[in-house]
Structure formats: structure tokens, C-alpha cells
Write a structure and sequence with these properties.
Elements: E1 3-5, E2 12-14, E3 16-19, H1 36-49, E4 53-55, H2 64-72, E5 81-86, E6 88-89, E7 96-101, E8 104-108, H3 112-126, E9 131-136, H4 145-157, E10 161-167, H5 171-178, E11 185-189, H6 196-208, E12 211-215, H7 249-268, H8 272-281, E13 287-292, H9 296-302, H10 312-322
Parallel strand pairs: 3-4, 3-13, 4-5, 5-9, 9-10, 10-11, 11-12, 12-13
Antiparallel strand pairs: 1-2, 6-8, 7-8
The protein binds NADP nicotinamide-adenine-dinucleotide phosphate.
The site of NADP nicotinamide-adenine-dinucleotide phosphate has 29 residues, from strand 13 and helix 9.
Amino acid sequence: MKYQKLGKTDLNVSVVSFGAWGIGGGIVWPDMNLGVENVKSLLDEAKDLGINYIDTAPVYGTSVSEKLLGEALKGRRDDFILQTKCSLNWRGDGGNFHYSRDGVTVNNDTSARAVKQDVEDSLLRLQTDYIDSIVVHYVCKSWPVEETMGALQDLIKEGKIRAVCLSNSQPADLEEYEKYGHVAAVQEFFSLLSPFHGYDYFENCTKYGTTFQVYGSLEEGFLTDPKFVDKTFPKGDVRGKLPWIEEPIKGAIHTLFDETLTPLTEKYNCSYANLIQAWTLKQYPNLNLLTGFRRAETMRDTVKCFDIELSDEDCKLMSEKAAPAQVPVLDK
Ligand SMILES: NC(=O)c1ccc[n+]([C@@H]2O[C@H](COP(=O)([O-])OP(=O)(O)OC[C@H]3O[C@@H](n4cnc5c(N)ncnc54)[C@H](OP(=O)(O)O)[C@@H]3O)[C@@H](O)[C@H]2O)c1
């Protein structure tokens, strides 16, 4: 495993981080809830592989992911760097409407009162007295950044959190937040099929020493197997709404696999996921690869991406050949 400092903090995180959205079910995995024993096994595997950085959020499975982690981390909390999020909540005590699903209405609220309450709620669910890193889940303009960041700085002083990150944000948001404290990482959607937001962001990350934490690099599975795009997804599964399954993009994805990705996996003797992750890691030096896991096999396979010495030429080829399948902006 490779490690990096998270932004300018002293948190030494594994470059592959464990995305725990899927363990609690939710809009991509509606029928999933792994249960505590399976989550414990996944954490055992993560530890063996050197993955020490976990990402969750209150809304993943509407508290299920955090609660499972809280149980599974008992007795070994300090073995992991634990990241959760604030701003999205379903307490019904304020904020802007964000989404409504299965009878639960989730609001976005970045007021000082709300983010402080979010952290208290997560500390309880995670059964811990500190959270290493808090991500503002959806940056929002309804409250002054000074107020939000001020509250998060108070929580750092109180020892309840150690670092602040942003998500679903723009480079200008990073500029604004940095006026009131350090943003250790931005957690943003970035993939071979939609890389433009990342390209726009890298310069500002360099300016502030902020880590670019990628989510969705495997496109929730679409980039792990040539046949994935032909699947049908159950009602409620967000993958059934992604542009990848509609023509002409679907055909362009098939062509990308047939003409470029498959020959490259043969050349490098690796899985599709490894090839995609090797490409992702080459896009920016201070990049953290947040990957969703529900199975030990995919965790074990993923760490092999570090063994691949993807040439500059092949990296460029992948970017060029992906162009017909790419979409400029994708709001997941
Ligand atoms: N800030 C945000 O708004 C936001 C949004 C989305 C996600 N996230 C975070 O980012 C994390 C990752 O995103 P994601 O889960 O959407 O998508 P992802 O990482 O692109 O894809 C996860 C899927 O890829 C599979 N996979 C992982 N490694 C693999 C490998 N080596 N070979 C084959 N398949 C592999 C997983 O399989 P298995 O499940 O079978 O292991 C899972 O189905 C989430 O868990 C969450 O923590 C944040």
C-alpha cells in the first residue's frame, strides 16, 4: 500500500480508501445491508492490505453504514482513519430540500447549528469520541462559509474532529473555505468517462496543498467489466439512470472496451479495475482513490493497481479513446 498525508494535516492515509456507502445499502445497492460480521471481515481484510482510511456518511443507508462501522470498529477504532460527512440530514429541523426517498426527506443544511449537530449524531452512531475527517457533503450557498467553517474549526479545537474536507464543490468553493481554515481534501466525482470536473480542480488543489479524493472512478462497476453496461437494474437502483446505458454512449463504451481497454488489460496482465485505477492515479499526484467495496475479493484486486506501470503513451491513448463515451458534467 502507498500512503499520503491528507492535505496539510498529519493524517497518514492509504492512497486507496474504503468507500462504505455500499455496506449500508442505498440508492445504488437498494437491497444491501452487509451486517456487522461481514463488515468486520471487510475491515480485517482492509487492515491486512494496509487500507487504513474509511469513508462513510450519515445518509449512506440512512445511518446504516455509520452504525455498522460503529459496531465493527469496536476495540480497534484507532487502527483506522475515519471520515464521515455533515450537511445532509433527515432530522426535519431546517435546511434546503435535497431529496425524498422511501418516506425519508433529506435536507441540506450547512448552518453552524446543523453541522455541529451532525457531528454529535455521527459520534454516537460511530461509537467514538473523535472523527478524523469531516466532509461537507454538499457545499451549499445558503449559509456563509465563514459560519460553516467557523463551526468546524470550533469542533477541531474541541478535539471532536481533526480535519475538514469538501464534496460536490467547485474550485471557487475551495478558495472561499480556505479563507477560514485548511481544507484537507475535496471529495469529487472523477472518472475516465467524466474527468472534466477534476481537470478543472487540480490547479486549486495544488495551490492549497489539498488532496483530490476521487469517488466513482470505477463508475459503480461500469468500468470493471465490458458486459456491465448491458445489465438491467432493479427499480430504484441509481445505475439504471446513468447515461452509460443509453445509446450512443453505450455503444461508445463497448467500442472503448473492445478496441482499447481489453488489449491493455492483456498487455499489463491486469483486471479492468486495475487498468482504470492506474489511469486515475496518473492524472494527479496528490490523488486519493476512494473505492466502494462490499467484498474482500474486489478489495484484494484493487490494491494491485499499484503494480501497474502504465506508460504515458497508454494513459494518453485511454483518454483519447474514451472521448466518444465521455459526458462533460454528471450529477450523481
Ligand atoms: N461525496 C459524494 O457525494 C459521494 C458520492 C458517491 C460515492 N461516494 C463515496 O465514494 C465511494 C466509492 O464510490 P462508489 O461506491 O459510488 O463507486 P465506485 O468506487 O466507482 O464503484 C464501486 C463498485 O465497484 C466494485 N469494485 C471495486 N473494486 C473492484 C475491483 N477491483 N474489481 C471489480 N469491481 C470492483 C465494487 O464491487 P463490490 O461492491 O462487489 O466490492 C462496487 O460495486 C462510496 O462508497 C462513498 O464512500 C461519495
